[in-house]
Specification:
Blueprint (H helix, E strand, L loop, with lengths): L1 E3 L16 E5 L4 H8 L4 E2 L8 E3 L4 E4 L8 H8 L4 E4 L3 H10 L12 H12 L3 E8 L2 E11 L4 E9 L4 H15 L4 E5 L3 H5 L3 E3 L1 H7 L2
Parallel strand pairs: 1-2, 9-10
Antiparallel strand pairs: 2-4, 3-4, 5-10, 5-11, 6-7, 7-8, 8-9
């Protein structure tokens, strides 16, 4: 297992094990996080663990032009079912993502240190949030890291308190990313939810090419 030092650097992603685990240790400084994302690496760990860094193979991604919008979702969008904003309340979005109960997880991986680190990325303009509102109440949203120079958006987490709210926000985000000519949305690992929206798995090598 590769243990990080104070130096802002990572081993080659090919060193990752079969689960995608690449390294442990280091910190969640802005410089280290940006170095990680620019090389296809992200942190994912629980409070009782050291910082763990992953670069899975295959990688789940969405090509914006391949976005799938179901008939029912198109109807909701036409009816303006929800109001969607960007960067209006990043803190509430990441707090909600941390608190939402997920059947596949016993506890959250969005620790207090993670929240503070991504709030700092947001303040510096690297992390963005999408808020979904119903009657002025936050009912869904998501956040991620936007590598604008590489035309890649790295999704981190989403939440929904009302049926279809997070999906509505994600679709709105992808349409916005299309306008910015973003080539790829990084979804990290497979989920049925993301697959239903058109996300697919590609090799890590292919994914890394988009970051060069």
């Amino acid at each position: 297992m590769y243990v990080l030092t104070d130096a802002i650097e990572f081993p080659p992603v090919t060193y990752a094990d079969s689960d995608g685990l690449l390294a442990l240790g280091g910190d969640l400084s802005t410089d280290r996080l940006l170095e990680a994302y620019n090389h296809g690496i992200f942190p994912w760990y629980s409070d009782d663990q050291p910082i763990l860094w992953f670069s899975p193979d295959p990688r789940m991604v969405l090509f914006p032009l391949k976005l799938k919008v179901s008939k029912s979702m198109r109807q909701l969008i036409r009816k303006n079912r929800f109001e969607v904003t960007f960067n209006k309340d990043f803190e509430s979005v990441i707090e909600s993502c941390a608190m939402i109960k997920r059947p596949e997880q016993e506890d959250t991986w969005i620790t207090s240190d993670m929240k503070n680190a991504y709030k700092k990325l947001h303040e510096l303009g690297y992390a963005i949030s999408v808020e979904v509102w119903e009657d002025s109440t936050l009912v869904g949203g998501l956040y991620g890291v936007f590598l604008e120079d590489k035309k890649v958006f790295c999704g981190e987490s989403m939440f929904s308190k009302v049926s279809n709210a997070s999906k509505y926000g994600f679709i709105t985000l992808v349409e916005w990313l299309k306008q910015k000519e973003v080539r790829l949305v990084d979804c990290q690992v497979y989920t049925d939810h993301l697959a239903s929206l058109g996300a697919v798995e590609i090799s890590r090598d292919e994914f890394i090419e988009y970051l060069k």
